Amino acid sequence: TPPLRLGALDVLAQHVLGCACGKPFLSDELYDEVRTAAPYASLSRTDFDDVVDFVATGGYALKTYERFARIKQDKQGRWRVTNPKVRQSYRLNVGTIVEETMLKVRLVRSRAGGTGSTGAIARGGRMLGEIEEVFIE
């Protein structure tokens, strides 16, 4: 079994935004929930609050631009999305990037000299590009 990895903060940020898209949440409750997941069991409250702040403001570089605010606290202290476009954008773009195996695509000719689909295929040929393996299966 591979060793347990600590939780990635970018994945946590997606979870925070996803929770706000579902329904408003209280920081204390979400922090308690997140720490029940093994990769986040040792997550400090400071790191959690920093992630929530990052989702809310876009971080120190974008804090001054209102359009990058994704979540805000309401009068009851619950975090909620700033507008429906945030919810829509999240649902269209959520996910983590997993590196896929890339395969080379080459232009080859048959051993008979033509480009037809019959006969043995020669090796090599001019490289056309690359494609992720998942699209070939």
From TrEMBL:
The Helicase Lhr-like winged helix domain is annotated at 8-136
List the keywords (alphabetical): Ligase
MF terms per GO, please? ATP hydrolysis activity; DNA binding; ligase activity
Keyword Lipid biosynthesis: yes or no? no
Domain of life of the source: Bacteria
Instruction: Fetch the PANTHER family from UniProt.
Output: ATP-DEPENDENT HELICASE LHR-RELATED-RELATED, LARGE ATP-DEPENDENT HELICASE-RELATED PROTEIN
Name of the protein described by the UniProt record:
DNA ligase-associated DEXH box helicase
Species name for this entry? Neisseria gonorrhoeae
